[in-house]
């Protein structure tokens, strides 16, 4: 049975949860990197999960184009980037994945196919586990929303993208403040949220007449919210599906991000192949010593 960890876990509860996880998956504080692998994944609807299973071949398609996610059934499910980091940090047998821009010193990123997970390697194309950060533009993209988007895509906005550890879009266009005012809501991907919060903070300093509210959920919810007019701008850490764009929304890439494959800092493993990641997440490899 899947174990779902909630975002709003207080520190004491989190510590208890990690202990419980260890007892059920032979994984936590007393284990080493030769035992059973604790597979940690994201929830369905997560753009990070969608990109991860596609890039590593965990997702398969039949002849009609129908997709199947082959992630093992007993994978532990986390519903945000922050909880993924906390879970891997607290479980010495764990393997997980997060946005490269959210990588913290409390966990260790593995080299994939001999390449370090870094912004520079994503730029060069040597680290191939990368995906777009998109904004989703729907029926409620008003004048204030358009002005904020202009800021995001400007030279000033893309400097923030680079500063926060993502690959920026090429642009030489400077932002020019408009007379837009009011309140806009941005909702969606938990991977995009930290960057969007930085962009919103900087934007409101140059246009204090607009208030930007950023709400964290997941990519699919962000796309749906933009489509239905629940929010002004959606956030998605994956490309949109045809059936989503057929409903009248458009996407715009604001940055490129790598996906880091992470393990506990005490794990002796330092690198992995794409094939090994695929086999771990589909249940073909179950123990760390099978990687040696």
UniProtKB/TrEMBL annotation:
Part of the ABC transporter complex PstSACB involved in phosphate import. The keyword Ion transport does not apply. Keywords: Lipoprotein, Palmitate, Phosphate transport, Signal, Transport. The keyword Metal-binding does not apply. GO terms for cellular component: plasma membrane. Residues 1-20 form the signal peptide. It comes from the Bacteria. Belongs to the PstS family. This is Phosphate ABC transporter substrate-binding protein. Residues 33-156, 175-290 form the PBP domain. It is found in: Cell membrane. It holds the Pfam family PBP_like_2. InterPro entries: PBP_domain (IPR024370), Phosphate_ABC_transporter (IPR050811). One of its GO terms (biological process) is phosphate ion transport. It is a lipid-anchor. The complex is composed of two ATP-binding proteins (PstB), two transmembrane proteins (PstC and PstA) and a solute-binding protein (PstS).
């Amino acid at each position: 049975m899947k174990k779902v960890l909630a975002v709003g876990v207080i520190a004491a509860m989190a510590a208890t949860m990690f202990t419980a996880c260890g007892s059920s998956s032979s994984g936590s504080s007393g284990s080493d990197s030769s035992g059973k692998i604790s597979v940690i994944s994201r929830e369905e609807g997560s753009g990070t999960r969608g990109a991860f299973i596609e890039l590593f071949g965990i997702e398969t398609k039949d002849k009609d184009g129908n997709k199947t996610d082959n992630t093992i059934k007993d994978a532990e499910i986390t519903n945000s980037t922050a909880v993924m980091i906390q879970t891997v940090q607290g479980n010495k047998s764990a393997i997980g994945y997060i946005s490269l821009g959210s990588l913290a010193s409390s966990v260790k990123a593995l080299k994939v196919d001999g390449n370090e997970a870094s912004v520079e390697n994503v730029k060069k194309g040597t680290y191939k586990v990368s995906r777009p950060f998109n904004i989703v533009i729907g029926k409620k993209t008003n004048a204030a929303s358009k002005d904020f988007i202009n800021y995001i895509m400007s030279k000033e906005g893309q400097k923030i993208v680079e500063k926060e550890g993502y690959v920026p879009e090429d642009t030489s266009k400077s932002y020019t403040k408009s007379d837009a005012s009011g309140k806009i809501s941005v909702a969606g991907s938990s991977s995009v949220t930290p960057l969007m919060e930085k962009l919103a903070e900087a934007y409101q300093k140059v246009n204090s007449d607009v208030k930007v509210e950023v709400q964290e959920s997941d990519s699919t919810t962000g796309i749906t919210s933009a489509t239905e007019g629940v929010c002004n701008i959606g956030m998605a850490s994956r490309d949109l599906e045809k059936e989503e764009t057929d409903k009248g929304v458009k996407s715009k890439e604001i940055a490129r991000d790598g996906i880091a494959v992470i393990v506990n800092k005490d794990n002796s493993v330092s690198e992995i192949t794409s094939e090994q990641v695929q086999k771990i997440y589909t249940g073909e490899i179950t123990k760390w010593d099978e990687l040696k």
